């Protein structure tokens, strides 16, 4: 009986976590370059129940059995196995702002520098120019060039070609750093549209085998969140949570009846 509690509870926990992930995806439906998280559920290993040290059927004649009788299998619940971002290409939309940049091509990322001076990766090209003239993200992280240095400009009157070469007043100022991830699933989400990787930094995408990409100025890449599909999945997760909740309530009532009525001494 208690195993039923654990099975229902594990289903509720898994659906609650799935709902939280879907809610986060929905809240970022308009975030440039956001890659929606996908989840996968997995069942815990099933248990095979059998009667131990018993080779007879408990009837009046005690019928003997030539083998140990198996009761059957028991499912032990489910859990959220893993969360993986959907790295497919998002739609591009024109903004008219020279500081907005969009990457076209999968497995490539802008390189930025965080507060600790470490390199991070992002698909969000909603950039701006700070008071010192540096090209930064909306949260104030410095955009890096191919040498890992900050990019400083004198105004927003600059152009960026498809390979990230920044030109201002007729002279090339820098080339925007674009990293290539052969296996994007190795990247770790940090929040605020940033990714990091354990170990060595990602190589530059320029000249890398399999790194086909282009940069579009005055464009932003849209989120990969499908609002309609996400709403449907949220309703499905909620109903699954509700069904497990009803099962848990039924078990609770059964245990209450067993304790207060069946086990009562009269």
From TrEMBL:
GO CC terms, sorted: bacterial-type flagellum basal body
Residues annotated as transmembrane: none
Any Pfam family: LlgE_F_G_D1
Cross-referenced InterPro entries: Flag_bb_rod_N (IPR001444), Flagellar_basal_body_rod_CS (IPR019776), Flagellar_FlgE/F/G (IPR020013), Flg_bb/hook_C_dom (IPR010930), FlgE/F/G-like (IPR037925), LlgE_F_G-like_D1 (IPR053967)
The UniProt record lists the keyword Metal-binding: no
Domain Flagellar hook protein FlgE/F/G-like D1, chain residue ranges per copy: 109-167
The entry's keywords: Bacterial flagellum, Cell projection, Cilium, Flagellum
GO biological process, one term: bacterial-type flagellum-dependent swarming motility
Ranges of residues in domain Flagellar basal-body/hook protein C-terminal: 217-260
UniProt feature coiled coil, ranges: none
Localization (cell): Bacterial flagellum basal body
SUPFAM superfamilies from the UniProt entry: Flagellar hook protein flgE (SSF117143)
Family (UniProt): Belongs to the flagella basal body rod proteins family.
Protein name (Swiss-Prot/TrEMBL): Flagellar biosynthesis protein FlgC
Natural source organism: Domibacillus epiphyticus
């Amino acid at each position: 009986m208690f195993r039923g509690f654990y099975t229902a509870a594990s289903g509720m926990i898994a659906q609650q976590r799935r709902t939280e992930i879907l809610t986060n995806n929905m809240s970022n439906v308009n975030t440039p370059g956001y890659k929606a998280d996908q989840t996968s559920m997995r069942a815990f290993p099933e248990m095979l129940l059998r009667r131990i040290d018993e080779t007879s059927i408990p009837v009046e004649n005690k019928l003997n059995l030539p083998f140990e009788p198996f009761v059957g299998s028991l499912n032990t619940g489910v859990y959220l196995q893993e969360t993986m971002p959907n790295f497919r290409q998002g739609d591009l939309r024109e903004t008219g702002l020279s500081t907005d940049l969009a990457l076209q091509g999968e497995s490539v990322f802008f390189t930025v520098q965080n507060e600790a001076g470490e390199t991070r990766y992002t698909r969000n090209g909603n950039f701006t120019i700070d008071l010192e003239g540096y090209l930064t993200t909306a949260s104030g992280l410095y955009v890096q060039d191919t040498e890992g240095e900050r990019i400083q400009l004198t105004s927003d009157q600059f152009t960026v070609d498809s390979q990230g070469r920044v030109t201002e007043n007729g002279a090339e100022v820098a080339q925007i750093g674009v990293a290539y991830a052969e296996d994007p699933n190795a990247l770790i989400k940090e929040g605020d549209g940033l990714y990091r990787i354990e170990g060595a930094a990602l190589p530059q995408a320029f000249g890398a085998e399999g790194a086909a990409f282009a940069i579009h100025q005055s464009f932003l890449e849209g989120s990969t969140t499908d609002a309609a599909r996400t709403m449907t999945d949220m309703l499905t997760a909620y109903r699954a949570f509700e069904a497990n909740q009803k099962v848990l309530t039924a078990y609770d009532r059964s245990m209450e009846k067993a304790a207060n009525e069946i086990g009562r001494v009269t």
